[in-house]
Amino acid sequence: MKAGIIKFSKPETGDFYSVLTRRVNDYFVQKNISRHANAAMIIKTIAMLAFYFIPYLLIVTATVTHPWMVILMWCLAGLGVSGIGLSVMHDANHGSYSRNPKVNALLGYSLNLLGGNVMNWKLQHNVLHHSFTNVEGFDEDIESRKVLRFSPHQPLYKHHRYQYIYAWVLYSVMTILWITMKEFRQLARWKNDGIIEAQGRTYKGIMAELIASKTFYYGYALVLPLLLSPVAWWVTLSGFILMHLISGLILAMVFQPAHVVPSSEYPLPDNQGNIENTWAIHQLLTTSNFAPTNRLLCWYVGGLNFQVEHHLFPNVCHIHYKKISSIVKDTAQEFGLPYYELPTFRSALQAHGSQLYNLGRLSPAV
User: Fold this and answer.
1) Where are the domains of the chain?
2) pTM of the model
């Protein structure tokens, strides 16, 4: 079944999402503020870019030369990679950073500077994940190719019993997979599924773009440090890998507790491709917030601890999520709908670990 066949129930007049949308729109009108980036968001953008590029420049200009200091710079760059991905690239590629599409496109291409590819990310994240959250066979964020089990509808293997332990190690290689093989495999799969053509692109065109972006990334991010830094080559290579291990783990720790926790549902379409609920209610059933009062975490992870708000309003800059969260929560409760939220980051990680444990033992659902 192709993604285009999936159909959510049609909303009725005065349904949850229409009321919620009106209230959120009224909030921005009454406050006389834009739903896009503000001054605080611009400052954050500069800070996140600096987190990555200042350590990089210190390495390639040989300003830092002691091996352990070079490793430290790579570690700081890993924080920058995650920060750019969570707080800058993510909003830009959702079109929520600026009302100007050119600004969004420019900042969105920061993903290519980090070794990823904008087109692949938009297909996986914007189209598949946001449209079909936690729907087995459609949401690629819960696909793990048998290594991990993120859905009760996936086959259960003996090694899944221990996934609550080894998953955290595998999460750290996430961005390493992105910069190497994952996106090439995605393209081949999407070509067969007809997803690329549905987006008005061609397989050859995206493949050429992908090869060019990977070549550019490896050239400036790895080859230049190998050539210009006076430390041994293995120090540079180790630092580069460590940067991605740190980034991969951080990204997984932010995104996984949002959808793979005990409160999450995993709806399946019927034989005609129909999903029982409307799209908005589906988002409430499959998404969870965490640590809403942790100001430092909210700043660093780009408001993505407010995943409920993000899934319902991906075209709103994350800088506003905390403010509109009370509107979303109150409206959900008014309509008798769930609003899942965990109080701390620690409790979110524990909940995700608990779900991994459960899924490693739960027989496949019928």
Assistant:
1) 3-359
2) 0.92
Per residue in 125-140, pLDDT tens?
988 899 999 999 889 8
**Long-range contacts, stretch 220-228, CB < 8 angstroms, 24+ apart:** 221/56, 221/115, 224/60, 225/56, 225/59, 225/60, 228/59, 228/60, 228/61, 228/62
CA angle 135, 23, 37 (to 5 degrees): 80
- Start-to-end CA span in the chain (Å): 17
* Structure confidence by residue, pLDDT tens digits, 188-213: 888 887 777 777 788 888 889 899 99
Question: If you write DSSP's letter for every residue of 288-336 in order, what string do you get?
Answer: -EE-TT-HHHHHHTTTTT-HHHHHH-TTS-GGGHHHHHHHHHHHHHHTT
Q: Give start and end residues of each alpha helix (H) in the chain.
A: 16-31, 39-60, 67-84, 90-93, 101-108, 110-113, 118-121, 130-131, 163-171, 174-177, 183-193, 195-198, 203-218, 224-228, 233-259, 279-286, 295-300, 307-312, 321-334, 345-359
Side chain identity at residue 221, one-letter code: A
Q: At 274, which helix (H) or strand (E)?
A: strand 274-275
Say how far apart CA 353 and CA 47 lie, in whole Å.
31
| 275, β-bridge pairs | 8
pLDDT at 123: 84
Q: Are strands 7-8 and 274-275 parallel, antiparallel or unpaired?
A: parallel
